[in-house]
Every structure is written in structure tokens, then in C-alpha cells.
């Protein structure tokens, strides 16, 4: 079958037909329908085939859909469905009263609008299923519903802003038709008006248009009951579509059996005060007879192609699509047109022919087409991530997205065919249409054929199509679907009465909800829906509606939704919840047009309304994701995407416990959905206290969520373990225990289970290795350890290394180990797996570790010594200072790391390395006084272990083990340690001489405790000349020492150094005398003696005629050294002279420097300055010194007489009222400033400012004083004139 071609003049493209995997052939009238697929059956309370049944009973809200096996055995029954289902019929009880049934419906925003076969319109608020308005609009079946704007906006209520209510009253919960509620007393007119009003919120401010088989189109404002328009077209109307801007342009399109697409503009509005709920009555109240009396304008846009069954206005309002018997038509509307493009208004831009088959010729007027304009923002993305694209592909994709913003997509399902159409905006053409202006064009991008009749279609995700499929019955009844003859197609295609009223064989199949992958064109999921009386329903009786993901969930989670329902602000809602606050607050809550008597009515109605709505929110509506509504005349089904909770239930039903446990482990929030989904009881009224309690317990809620998740994990884990154990898979069961068990009682149960089955190996690696809270019983660990102690000692050792000793009773295990040794169940010479003494070592080693963990370190040390485990033995001794525990056998302790059989084969270096740690430990303990050196040396000498004794004494001498100390503390400790060797000085000399000559010299020079004769004897035995020289020089035998150097060593350099060190002239004489006949010694003396002796004496002692190699160089060297010495001495002398001269000059200048001071008289006979008595007249007599006591008198000179405390010039005494500045010198002479200046500068005028000083008024100014002192210092820089004259004479 080929795709339809566009008619001439249309801007359509001929599509390339694509074969869908979901549809093998286009169904024919003589074809046999496929068998129904395995699906999901909705559980109904009563039988589904009773003719008298009009309502379905239910035990609880939203009965979930259960799996039913109806397919063949080769079908994959383990594949999880994509969707879950819940029956909403019980929430729509008033809809099905009086034998009424659903004929059409529409869901958008937060509302569901349902038309019935009796002509009633039910506007229901979601998600609480609260009837906002129920009115009787038609006298026959409602065929179509349209709203404007579509989709309606959701109300976002701000906390500080109350929604504006309608002028009359907040809202009307339900009409008498919908509720059938009888009040105990007739309500007042004000209360009735309150109940009949819908709050004027953005989501409620919509218009509802309905068409009917009675030929009428009714347009009703949801908020204002007076704003209603009723128009009769004299023929059954099958479809109606309101303009997206109907509120302003009052425009809608309609069509039906007349085959005309009618454009209606400006229908008159009704204004009435009637209280009836019927829309026809509303219009009749102000218009009377409306049929034929309307002043609105009708324009036929298209006609002549048979019945029009579907009309849809695009979301942007630019395009409209309608379906008639010939195919699909798309037209450009007048909305959003530029003035230059006004002629494009209501111009058809595309036509797509229906398939040209015999079946389509018969059924085109019967099958109802389903069309949906795709809302790109509301469609969810596909779950799998897209594969990485190449740069070119990514660029192409971006271009498609850019151009796609101006393209509107249309999805059409009609009969068994699906079209995906792209509608492009108008503009200048290209190619052969270059230069031509187009209003737009339609392009078929994909064509799919199904093996069913499409009863509903929608785009589920960007790559999945949702199809409500009506499967043909088993026998050939395709023609009976709509009627028996073509001439009655208008009657049979309307569905004006339920299919149950048609007399025919009741063998129709239940509908199926399918998900089709657009890429692979394969069925992703298919669920069969068993609805009430499906055997008597046709494809036109089923309807599909989809809400985007964010619509209902947002409305359900918002507190403002309930405020909107009540038509109240935030303050009024609080007043309704807590009426006491109305009277306790200072503000009055009153509307502008209300009186005081009406307020209690509002509060009571609002409070009762909120209480009644508490338990009516279906849990599936509050969850995120797309909401799918499926309506039949007698049922309403909600389909939603399965969440983690549903997946968990599905896994548990199939006993896939591992996957279920992993799911809860990765998503613990699953367990919170159960608490969130459970509604409040209807009789519970939430107060403001409840609100604050919920906020305060947020943290507790999070904790309980994870606690619930942990409990669920433990429950599933138990089932998982039981499944594995029953299957005999103990290995996986042990692995699973490590994952799922979290409490001590569960661990105890399952460990005993494994132990009873002798499956220790399968569980032992997963038992907790750390202490739990509460702790596991230690018996568990003891039993497991006891098992492996008997069966596998290597495994026993591994468990002891892995498990902390805190997990079990240590004494129980140590007793078992000691019994193994006691009863010789293990022996040192036993062979296990080719290894001698393996089990014995394991037992002793384990015993040592447990003793140490239990605080019995001495027993542990004995075990380690048995094992020759030097590392652990040393560690215990160091940490616990347990060296005294091995003091009875020091040699064995030192040789702990020395293999007994290889001790004689090892070198001294290897033995030193093997015993280093033990020696260091003993030295450290000797310093602490725990193990005395006497004990160590005595035991070593008894066994003639001289080498070990040497190691020990050397360690004491060097201070091993005290490197952690520093500074003076360490030096002191080393000295203390060396003093311990003095008790064994002769033994130390012997051992040092035997094993370490360098250490011997250090010991001889440092210690004084050894015997000289023994030391000389040891040094002479080993021919240690340097040590002998030191010993002889220490006892004053210098010549003997020098003789040893000269005769035994023949080292002239050492002999010269020895002579220099002793600085003995006799020793130099002996050296010169011995060297005069040895040229080598003479040359050495010339080169190295330096200035120690007179070189002339050395040169003169050289025998004449003696041939000496290098004599010239030696003489040059000695002369050079003397020159250098003379030069250095001369330089030092010059430096000293210059420094002395500088110091003398400094002294003189200081003595000559004048000192300014003030006279302070302390007592009559006190003198502050004692100085020499110098005559003021230059003479030849020497001055005498005057003392402070005044006993000696100064000889009176021929002129004036000076005395201390007097001016050296005028010889006048100083008083405490001196007006002049006094100047004194270090020599003791003091002058009046005027007299001193006259003396130093005779004949010059004295500056009085220097004489009188700075005065009292500026005494506090430091700058003036400094300036005065500086000027005065310049004048008296020559010094004391009296002393100067004395020096000159």
C-alpha cells in the first residue's frame, strides 16, 4: 500500500511509507484478528458482564492492576511492564448515576472534563477529584470537548497573596446532578450562591466547549455561569475546537455529519440569574429561543468531503487540523498573522489522503480519528543516554533543533494508521517553487501501520508513541463495528448510545495500551486492559488523555492548590483551619462586598470542603511522571510509569530477591513512598500545630526512612538467604550473609544454620571482623575457631590474625591450645604437608599472641623464645621492659637470632649484625639498672664467649641505646655508661686489643681504671706501637717512647710531632742526635720542624759531606717558613702599635673634653670632683694631688690659688646660684664659661649666649640645649688650657 498523494495546489509531500513491526498488514474486513496479548487485568469488585450493573464496587482507593497469564507459553512472561494501572472509577461515582456513561473526555492542566451520553458535563478538579461544576448542556450524547486556553495554566499561589475569588462566592463543590446530596435543612440563598461558584484563578479561568448529537455547540465559562453560548447547527456535531484566544475573539470551529467545517465568530453571551445548573437553561433564561436567533457569524471554511470527526487547533494557534472521510486537512488560521500575510488566513496548506482500500471506503466515516499537537516542552526525554555523535552529526543535530523551534509536530492516529506530520511555517519557496510565497506546508515524516484500530494516541517520550489499541474480534465483525449499511453511517458512527445497547454478539476484545519505538518501529510494551463490559464496546467508545509530567504532581504537592479550591487566601485558610485565630487577631478578615453574617458561612463551607478533600488524592497522581487516563463508558483507568516501588514489588512477586535487595540498597528512598502515598483519614483535620509538627520532625522522618529501608533490606535479605539455602547454594549464601545481615541476632541464627550443616568454609570469611553494636555472642567465634583448631590449623591461624581478640573469650581458646600441647596432640617433630613441626609452631604462636592480648606478656615471651621468634621477643622486652625475664640465660638471649648450627660458620660481622639488637637492649637495660653488667659479663665469660662480651662492653662504652637523647643529657648518659666499663677495665683492654685497636686507643686515652702494666703487656703482645708510645709518654718515659717511634716505626713525622707535643729541649736534642747520620730524618726535620727549634742550630749540626736528597728544597722550605713567620710577626706588631696609638688618642681626647654640669651643694665639706692641684701660672714645680678629705693643701703659687670647687681661672668658689655655665674637664679643672673662652681665645669678644646658656623659659626644649652644647663644644675643642700649658712646659 502506498501513501496518499497531496491534492493539486496543496503544499504536501508524498510520504515514503515505512513498515512498522507492530503492524503486519492493514486490517481487512475478511481478516482474522490476532489473539489478544498477555496483559494486565484491572481488578474489579463485581462481575464485568452484568447488564444491570452501572457502578463498580471497590474495597479501597485505586485498586492496583494485577498480572494475569493469558498468553501462550512462548511469550516472555518475566519481562516487567513499563506502566502500572489503577482504577479511578470509584472516584467518579456521580458520573455514572442514573444510568449515565462517558461519551468523551478531555484532561488538561489540573482538570478533567467529561461528557456523558445524557448530555451532562462534569468538570473535575485534579488530583482531589473534586467536582468544580456539573451542568446539563445537551439533550443527547456529547461528542467532543474543547477548552481555551489549552493547556490551561496552573495556579501558583504565593504565601503572601490570596487568589481572587469570583464576585459572588468562593466556590461550588458539586451540583445536585453530580452529588445528589440532601441537606438536613434548606440552605439559605447566600449558602446556595456560595456552593455554585468556582474561584476565579488562572487555572479556572477557562472556557469549555462541547458538541453533541443534538446539533448544539455549548461554550461555557467555568468561572462565570452567566457567560454561556449555545448554538444549534441542525445536524449532529461530531467535533468542536475553541480558538486558543477565545476569551477575546469568541471564535471556534465545528463540524459533523453535515461535512462542513464551520467557523463561528461572536456568538452572543447569556446573562442570567437563574440558579439551575443546565447550560441550556442558562441560555434560555436570557435569550429565550436561541435556535436560529443568534447574531453570531458562521463561515463555512470547507465542505463536501463527508463527515468531520476530529478538529484540533494547534498549540500556537497558527494551524488547525481536521479529519473527514477523504483524509487529513491542515489550514492556516488568522492568529499571529502579519498584516502583509492577511490573505493567508484560513488557507489550507496541506491535505493527506487516507489509505485507498475497500475497508477504508467502508469504515472512514465510522472510525474516529485521533489527532494531537505535540507540546515539545511537555514531552519527556528517553531514559537511555544518547550515543556519542561525531562532530558533523552533532552539528546537524543542532541545526535540526534550531529549525525545529519553528516547526509544529502533529500526531494523527486513524483506523490502523499513524501519521507523524511536520507543519512548516510559510515563506518564500525554493527550487521549482522559488519566488512563490507559501502560507506553510505539511510534511509526513513517518507513517506506521498497526494491526488494530487506534482509539487514542499520544507521544509518550521523544521516541515512544503511546497507542490505545482496539483489537478486532476473533470472527469477522469489522463491519459491525459501526453499522450494517453505509447509508446509516451518520447514526452508527456517532456512538450516541453505549455500545452495550447494540444488539450483536458480545465477543469484542479488551483494549490494549501499547508503546511503540519510533526508531525500530517495534512494540516496547503492550498491556491488555480488562474494562467493564468491554465485550460490547467498540473502538469509538474508548478515549485516551495524557497529562505531562509536571502538571498533576505540582498541583498535588502545592499547599496553594487547596487554597485555590476553597477560593480563599492564605489568611482565610488559616482562619478556616483554626477559627480561634480569627477572633484573637487584631485584623478583620472581610471581603469588600460581604457582611458579618456571611463570614461564618464561608468559613464553615471552606473548612468542611478542606476536610472532605483530605483523603481523596490518589497516590498515583502525586508521583512524578506522565499520567495517562483511559476512559470507557463505564470505567476510568489511570496508567503511570512504574517507579522503584513498583519494580520492587514486581521483583518480590517473582522471588528475585537479589535484585530486590540491591534495588533497596541503591535507592533507600523507595520505602518513603509508602508513607507519603497513604492519605490522611477523612475524619482527621490538620491544624496549624500539625503543620509545625511536620516541619519539626523532618530529621526524624529522614531517619525513619532509612530505618524503614534497612528493615526492608533485612527482610528481603532473609528471603534471599532462605532461597539460596533451599537451593543448596551455600557458597552464594555465605557471600550474601556478608551483604544482608546487619543485626547480631540474624548473624547468630545464620551462623548456627551453617554450623549445623557443617558449612563453616562457606560462612567463615563473611563473619564480622569488628565488634558490632550490640556485639555478636562470642560463642559464635569460639565455635568456629574450635572447629578449625581441630580440622585446619593454618585456617585457625588466619582467623586469629583476622579477628580481634575482643570478639571472643580468650581463656577459652588458650585452654584449648594448651590442651593440644599438654596431651601432645601436636609435637615439634611431627610432619604436616611435608613440613616438620608446622602445627606445633601454629599452636605455640597462637598461644603467644593470645597471652599477649590477655596481658600475660611473660608467658607470651616464653612462647616466642621457644619459637626463636626474635622480632616479637625483642618487641615484648622493649615495650614491657622484660629483660629481667631472660636474665638467667643471657647467652641464649643474645644468640636468639643466631642459628645454633651455623654459629661457627658465621663471620664476626655476621655475628655482630645478628646480636646487635640484643646487645643494644642489654645496654639499655644496664643503663636503667634492670640487668646489671656484672650478670651479663659473668655469664658470657663462663661460656667463654669473648666476642659477645666484646660486643657488650663496646656497646656500654659507646652508649648504644641512648640515641634518643640529645645535647648535654646524652653526653651525660654516655659518660655514665662508660663508667660501667671501668669495673671491667683490664678485660676491656684485653678484648679491645683483640678485636678493635682503634677502640683500644680511645679507651686508653679516656679511662684511668686499667692497670698500666697489663695495658703495656697487651699492647706489646699485639705490637701496638702507637698505644705503647702513648702509655710510655703517659708515665714520663719520653725517650723510650721516642725510641719506639724512631726505631720501631721509623716515622720521622710522628717523631717530630711527638717532640713538638712534649716541647722538651732534651727530647729535641735526642732527636737531632739520632737523626744527624740519617739523611731521610734530616730532610724531614728541615721540612717539618718549622719554628719549633732554631734552624741555625739544625743546619750547623748537619755533618759535612753528608749527601742529603732534597737538601736544597728543605733549606728553602725552612727559610720560607721563617720569612712567613717574620712577616706575620711584623704585621701583627704594626697592627698592635696602631691600635695602641688609637686607644691613646681616644683617651687623651676624652680627658681634654669639657663636661657641662650644674653645681649641687650637698653639704659644706663635700667635693664632687677630686683633681690635681695645678698652678694656673706655668712653673717648674710639680703639682700635688688633692684628696677629698682636704687634709693636704696645695702650695700657694706666686699668682692666684686654685682649689677644688673653684674656677681654675679666677679661683673663685662656685655657688648654687651660679648664673654662668660651668665647664669641667676630665682632668678635674672646672671653669666659668666666660673665663674659659677668654683663656682659649684671648683678645676676642665672648659670646654671652654661650656664657648664660638657654635660660629657664626654654629649658624644656631639647633642640635649644643641643645647639648650645654643640656651639660650646666647638669653642673649647682645644681642651683644658691649664693642662695644655703644663704639657708644653
Automatic annotation (TrEMBL):
One of its GO terms (biological process) is macroautophagy. Residues 206-334, 408-550 form the Vps41 beta-propeller domain. It comes from the Eukaryota. Residues 50-80 have a biased composition (Acidic residues). CHCR repeats lie at residues 921-1084. InterPro entries: Beta-prop_Vps41, Clathrin_H-chain/VPS_repeat, TPR-like_helical_dom_sf, Vps41/Vps8, WD40/YVTN_repeat-like_dom_sf, WD40_repeat_dom_sf. Residues 190-202 have a biased composition (Polar residues). GO terms for cellular component: HOPS complex; late endosome. Pfam families: Beta-prop_Vps41 (PF23411), TPR_Vps41 (PF23556). Keywords: Protein transport, Transport. Gene3D superfamilies: Tetratricopeptide repeat domain, YVTN repeat-like/Quinoprotein amine dehydrogenase. Residues 1-82, 158-202, 479-511 are annotated as: Disordered. Residues 158-169 have a biased composition (Low complexity). Transmembrane segments: none annotated. This is Vacuolar protein sorting-associated protein.
Amino acid at each position: 500500500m502506498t501513501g496518499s498523494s497531496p491534492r493539486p495546489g496543496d503544499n504536501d509531500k508524498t510520504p515514503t511509507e515505512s513498515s512498522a513491526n507492530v503492524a503486519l498488514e492493514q486490517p481487512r474486513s475478511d481478516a482474522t484478528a490476532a489473539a489478544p496479548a498477555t496483559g494486565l487485568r484491572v481488578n474489579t469488585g463485581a462481575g464485568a458482564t452484568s447488564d444491570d450493573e452501572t457502578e463498580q464496587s471497590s474495597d479501597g482507593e485505586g485498586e492496583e492492576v494485577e498480572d494475569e497469564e493469558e498468553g501462550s507459553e512462548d511469550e516472555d512472561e518475566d519481562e516487567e511492564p513499563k506502566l502500572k494501572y489503577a482504577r479511578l472509577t470509584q472516584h467518579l461515582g456521580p458520573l455514572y448515576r442514573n444510568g449515565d456513561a462517558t461519551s468523551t473526555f478531555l484532561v488538561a492542566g489540573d482538570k478533567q472534563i467529561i461528557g456523558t451520553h445524557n448530555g451532562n458535563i462534569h468538570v473535575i478538579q485534579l488530583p482531589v477529584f473534586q467536582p468544580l461544576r456539573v451542568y446539563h448542556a445537551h439533550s443527547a450524547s456529547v461528542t467532543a470537548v474543547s477548552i481555551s486556553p489549552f493547556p490551561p495554566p496552573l495556579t501558583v499561589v504565593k504565601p503572601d497573596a490570596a487568589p481572587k475569588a469570583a464576585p459572588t462566592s468562593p466556590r461550588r463543590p458539586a451540583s445536585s446532578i453530580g452529588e445528589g446530596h440532601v441537606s438536613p435543612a434548606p440552605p439559605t440563598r447566600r449558602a446556595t450562591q456560595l456552593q455554585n461558584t468556582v474561584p476565579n484563578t488562572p487555572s479556572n479561568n477557562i472556557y469549555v466547549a462541547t458538541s453533541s448529537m443534538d446539533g448544539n455547540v455549548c461554550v461555557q465559562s467555568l468561572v462565570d455561569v452567566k457567560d454561556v453560548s449555545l448554538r444549534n447547527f441542525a445536524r449532529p456535531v461530531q467535533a468542536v475546537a475553541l480558538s486558543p484566544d477565545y476569551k477575546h475573539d469568541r471564535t471556534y470551529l465545528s463540524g459533523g455529519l453535515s461535512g462542513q467545517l464551520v467557523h463561528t465568530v461572536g456568538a452572543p453571551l447569556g446573562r442570567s440569574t437563574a440558579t439551575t445548573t443546565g447550560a441550556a437553561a442558562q441560555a434560555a433564561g436570557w435569550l429565550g429561543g436561541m435556535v436560529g436567533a443568534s447574531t453570531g457569524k458562521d463561515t463555512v471554511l470547507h465542505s463536501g468531503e463527508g463527515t468531520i470527526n476530529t478538529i484540533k487547533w494547534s498549540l500556537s494557534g497558527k494551524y488547525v487540523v481536521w479529519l473527514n472521510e477523504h483524509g487529513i486537512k491542515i489550514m492556516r488560521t488568522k492568529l499571529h498573522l502579519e498584516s502583509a500575510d492577511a490573505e493567508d488566513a484560513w488557507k489550507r496548506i496541506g491535505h493527506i489522503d487516507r489509505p485507498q482500500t475497500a475497508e477504508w471506503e467502508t469504515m472512514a466515516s465510522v472510525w474516529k480519528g485521533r489527532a494531537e499537537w505535540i507540546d515539545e516542552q511537555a514531552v519527556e526525554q528517553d531514559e537511555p543516554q544518547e550515543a556519542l555523535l561525531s562532530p558533523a552529526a552533532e552539528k546537524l543535530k543542532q541545526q535540526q533543533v534550531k529549525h525545529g523551534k519553528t516547526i509544529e509536530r502533529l500526531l494523527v492516529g486513524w483506523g490502523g494508521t499513524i501519521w507523524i506530520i511536520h507543519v512548516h511555517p510559510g515563506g518564500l519557496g525554493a527550487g521549482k517553487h522559488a519566488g512563490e510565497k507559501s502560507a506553510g506546508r505539511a510534511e509526513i515524516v513517518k507513517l506506521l501501520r498497526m494491526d488494530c484500530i487506534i482509539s487514542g494516541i499520544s507521544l509518550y517520550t521523544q521516541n515512544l508513541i503511546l497507542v490505545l489499541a482496539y483489537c478486532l474480534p476473533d470472527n469477522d465483525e469489522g463491519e459491525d463495528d459501526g453499522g450494517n449499511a453505509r447509508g446509516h453511517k451518520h447514526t452508527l458512527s456517532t456512538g450516541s448510545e453505549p455500545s452495550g445497547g447494540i444488539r450483536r454478539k458480545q465477543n469484542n476484545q479488551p483494549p490494549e495500551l501499547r508503546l511503540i519505538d519510533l526508531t525500530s518501529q517495534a512494540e516496547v510494551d503492550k498491556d491488555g486492559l480488562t474494562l467493564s463490559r468491554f465485550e460490547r464496546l467498540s473502538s469509538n467508545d474508548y478515549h485516551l488523555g495524557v497529562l505531562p509530567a509536571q502538571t498533576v504532581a505540582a498541583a498535588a504537592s502545592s499547599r496553594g492548590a487547596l487554597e485555590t479550591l476553597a477560593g480563599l487566601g492564605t489568611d482565610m485558610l488559616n482562619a478556616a483551619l483554626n477559627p480561634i485565630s480569627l477572633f484573637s487577631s487584631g485584623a478583620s478578615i472581610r471581603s469588600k462586598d460581604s457582611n458579618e453574617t456571611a463570614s461564618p458561612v464561608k468559613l464553615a463551607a471552606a473548612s468542611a470542603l478542606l476536610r472532605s478533600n483530605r483523603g481523596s488524592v490518589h497516590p498515583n497522581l502525586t508521583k512524578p511522571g506522565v499520567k495517562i487516563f483511559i476512559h470507557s463508558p463505564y470505567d476510568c483507568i489511570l496508567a503511570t510509569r512504574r517507579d522503584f516501588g513498583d519494580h520492587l514489588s514486581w521483583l518480590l512477586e517473582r522471588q528475585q530477591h537479589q535484585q530486590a535487595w540491591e534495588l533497596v540498597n541503591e535507592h533507600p528512598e523507595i520505602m518513603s513512598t509508602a508513607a507519603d502515598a497513604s492519605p490522611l483519614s477523612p475524619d482527621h483535620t490538620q491544624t496549624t500545630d500539625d503543620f509545625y509538627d511536620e516541619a519539626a520532625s523532618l530529621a526524624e522522618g529522614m531517619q525513619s526512612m532509612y530505618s524503614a529501608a534497612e528493615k526492608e533490606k533485612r527482610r528481603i535479605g532473609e528471603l534471599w538467604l532462605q532461597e539460596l539455602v533451599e537451593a543448596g547454594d551455600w557458597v552464594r549464601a555465605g557471600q550474601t550473609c556478608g551483604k544482608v545481615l546487619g543485626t547480631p541476632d540474624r548473624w547468630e541464627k545464620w551462623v548456627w544454620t551453617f554450623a549445623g550443616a557443617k558449612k563453616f568454609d562457606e560462612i567463615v570469611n563473611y563473619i564480622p571482623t569488628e565488634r558490632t553494636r550490640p556485639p555478636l555472642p562470642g560463642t559464635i567465634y569460639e565455635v568456629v575457631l574450635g572447629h578449625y583448631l581441630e580440622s585446619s590449623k593454618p585456617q585457625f591461624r588466619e582467623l586469629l590474625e583476622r579477628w580481634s581478640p575482643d570478639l571472643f573469650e580468650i581463656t577459652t581458646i588458650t585452654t584449648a591450645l594448651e590442651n593440644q600441647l599438654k596431651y601432645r596432640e601436636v609435637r615439634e617433630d611431627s610432619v604436616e604437608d611435608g613440613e616438620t613441626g608446622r602445627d606445633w609452631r601454629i599452636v605455640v604462636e597462637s598461644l603467644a599472641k593470645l597471652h599477649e592480648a590477655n596481658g600475660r606478656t611473660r608467658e607470651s615471651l616464653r612462647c616466642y623464645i621457644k619459637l626463636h621468634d626474635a622480632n616479637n621477643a625483642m618487641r615484648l622486652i622493649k615495650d614491657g621492659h622484660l629483660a629481667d625475664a631472660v636474665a638467667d640465660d643471657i647467652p641464649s638471649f643474645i644468640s636468639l637470632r643466631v642459628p645454633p648450627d651455623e654459629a661457627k660458620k658465621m663471620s664476626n660481622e655476621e655475628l655482630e649484625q645478628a646480636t646487635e639488637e640484643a646487645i643494644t637492649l642489654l645496654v639499655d637495660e644496664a643503663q636503667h639498672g634492670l640487668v646489671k653488667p656484672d650478670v651479663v659479663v659473668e655469664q658470657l665469660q663462663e661460656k667463654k664467649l669473648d666476642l659477645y662480651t666484646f660486643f657488650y662492653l663496646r656497646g656500654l662504652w659507646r652508649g648504644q641505646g641512648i640515641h634518643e637523647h640529645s645535647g648535654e643529657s646524652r653526653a651525660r648518659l654516655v659518660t655514665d655508661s662508660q663508667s660501667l666499663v671501668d669495673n671491667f677495665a683490664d678485660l676491656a683492654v684485653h678484648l679491645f686489643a683483640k678485636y678493635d685497636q682503634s677502640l683500644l686507643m680511645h679507651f686508653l686515652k679516656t679511662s684511668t681504671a686499667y692497670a698500666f702494666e697489663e695495658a703495656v703487656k697487651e699492647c706489646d703482645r699485639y705490637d701496638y706501637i702507637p698505644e705503647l708510645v702513648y702509655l710510655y709518654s703517659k708515665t714520663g718515659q719520653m725517650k723510650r717512647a721516642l725510641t719506639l717511634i724512631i726505631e720501631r716505626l721509623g716515622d720521622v713525622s710522628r717523631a717530630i710531632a711527638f717532640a713538638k707535643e712534649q716541647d722538651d729541649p732534651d727530647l729535641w736534642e735526642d732527636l737531632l742526635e739520632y737523626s744527624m747520620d740519617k739523611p731521610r730524618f734530616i730532610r724531614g726535620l728541615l721540612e717539618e720542624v718549622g719554628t719549633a727549634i732554631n734552624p741555625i742550630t739544625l743546619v750547623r749540626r748537619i755533618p759535612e759531606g753528608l749527601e742529603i736528597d732534597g737538601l736544597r728544597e728543605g733549606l728553602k722550605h725552612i727559610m720560607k717558613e721563617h720569612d712567613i713567620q717574620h712577616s706575620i710577626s711584623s704585621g701583627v706588631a704594626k697592627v698592635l702599635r696602631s691600635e695602641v696609638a688609637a686607644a691613646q688618642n681616644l683617651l687623651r681626647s676624652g680627658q681634654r673634653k669639657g663636661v657641662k654640669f650644674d653645681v649641687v651643694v650637698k653639704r659644706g665639706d663635700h667635693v664632687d670632683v677630686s683633681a690635681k692641684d695645678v698652678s694656673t701660672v706655668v712653673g717648674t714645680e710639680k703639682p700635688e694631688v688633692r684628696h677629698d678629705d682636704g687634709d693636704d693643701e696645695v702650695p700657694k703659687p706666686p699668682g692666684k690659688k686654685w682649689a677644688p670647687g673653684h674656677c681654675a681661672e679666677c679661683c673663685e668658689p662656685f655657688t648654687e646660684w651660679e648664673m654662668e655655665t660651668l665647664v669641667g674637664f676630665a682632668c678635674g679643672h672646672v671653669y666659668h664659661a666666660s673665663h674659659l673662652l677668654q683663656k682659649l681665645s684671648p683678645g676676642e669678644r665672648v659670646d654671652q649666649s654661650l656664657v648664660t646658656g638657654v635660660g629657664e623659659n626654654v629649658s624644656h626644649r631639647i633642640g635649644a640645649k643641643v645647639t648650645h652644647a654643640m656651639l660650646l663644644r666647638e669653642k673649647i675643642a682645644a681642651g683644658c688650657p691649664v693642662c695644655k700649658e703644663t704639657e708644653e712646659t
